[in-house]
Amino acid sequence: MSALLNVQDLRVRFRTMGSLKALTTGTADPFIDAVCGVSFEIRKGETLALVGESGSGKSTIARTIIGLQPAVSGGIRFDGEELIGLKAAERKSYLRRMTMMFQDPVGSLSPRLTVQSLLIEPSRIHGVSTRDRGAEAERLLRMVGLPADFGRRYPHQLSGGQARRVGVARALALNPDLIIADEPTAGLDVSVQGEVLNLLARLQDELGIAILIITHNLNVVRHMADRMAIMYLGRIVEIGSTQDIFDQPRHPYTQALISANPVPDPDAVLNRIEIKGEVPSMLRRPSGCEFHTRCQYAQDICSRVFPRDADSSDDPAHSFKCHFPLKRISADKMEDRP
Ligand SMILES: Nc1ncnc2c1ncn2[C@@H]1O[C@H](COP(=O)(O)OP(=O)(O)OP(=O)(O)O)[C@@H](O)[C@H]1O
């Protein structure tokens, strides 16, 4: 399958609040590098999850892909076309083909517009004519399993799950090739979370849409994603197929995240690995491997030398940045693993 989206060595930098003071006193770096050389691709119809703790740079990557945030350097190719450097008007035709579902389902919908107007808005913004607005809104509502009369409601009259469905319907308005879903289940009850994820999975199957899911919820990842990328301090520290990473995490950070994730199986043996300490500030990045300050396996070299990307000998698509990756266990020995 060919790549629909190819992100290469992407870097995004923010000026910090204290930057003026820092510039005059020379006390600290006035910038933070929120995204540091991130590369990944998403193939047509595939789901990739970007996973990581709060502040690891996930949303910044999404906002940069859709042009809300400039990149310092790197590339974002969509269907073979480099988007960075394109003029806004040229970029617009590509942006039609990727839509973003924002984190806050009700807050991201304008409170003064009816659901029908909200569903027609993307077509209006992109100059796509819709002869019968009512019929178009009904079509989109039907796709997400909501009755036609929801078109007359306002966002505050929707439950959390209904607002998410409207968000999905709105994302579908322009027949996108890629949906970027930022925490698609945040704030929803577990049963409603399942409904929203099933809806996304069904639409993906039917329409062949690729999805970039941004989340810190590993159950969402396990349920939805073909591949996953784990982020720490603005870098991808491990990327590979979801199944492989859950079965055989190679980076100690991934291992700890997975071990801390509540598993639905009551018989599962929980060997929870605590990650010590706090996430370091992006203003004061640790030297060498940036995870070494919290890593239970860290050795001397880890604090001195930045680890290069390594990959699994039997799967080059599974790569990780670690001097001492966890050992791969052969399939027949997996059952004996503690
Ligand atoms: N507009 C901004 N100005 C300055 N710093 C910012 C801005 N937006 C994000 N940051 C910083 O960039 C870093 C990455 O933030 P980002 O929101 O991308 O992380 P995230 O992984 O999506 O977190 P969350 O899961 O909480 O949304 C954080 O340190 C954040 O404080």
Classified by CATH, the class is: Alpha Beta
Bound molecules: adenosine-5'-triphosphate
Mean pLDDT: 87
Structural class: alpha/beta
Q: How many β-strand stretches?
A: 12
Strand content: 15-25%
Strand order of the largest sheet: 6-7-8-3-9-10-12-11
Main β-sheet description: 8 strands, mixed
3D shape: globular
Specify the number of helices: 11
- What is the fold-level CATH name, i.e. the topology? Rossmann fold
Order of helices and strands: EHEEHEEHEHHHEHEHEEHHHEE
End-to-end Cα distance, whole Å, is 37 Å
> From the 3D coordinates, which CATH architecture would you assign?
3-Layer(aba) Sandwich
Radius of gyration: 21 Å
Uncertain stretches of 5 or more adjacent residues: none
In helices, the fraction of residues equals: 25-40%
Which homologous superfamily in CATH is the superfamily? P-loop containing nucleotide triphosphate hydrolases
Total of domains: 1
What does this entry look like structurally?
- By secondary structure, the protein is an alpha/beta fold.
- The chain has helices spanning 19-25, 58-65, 88-95, 115-125, 133-143, 160-172, 190-207, 218-224, 242-247, 252-259, 300-304, and strands at residues 3-15, 31-43, 47-51, 73-78, 81-82, 98-101, 178-182, 210-215, 227-232, 235-241, 309-312, 315-321.
- The longest helix has 18 residues, at 190-207.
- It is globular, with a radius of gyration of 21 Å.
- It binds adenosine-5'-triphosphate.
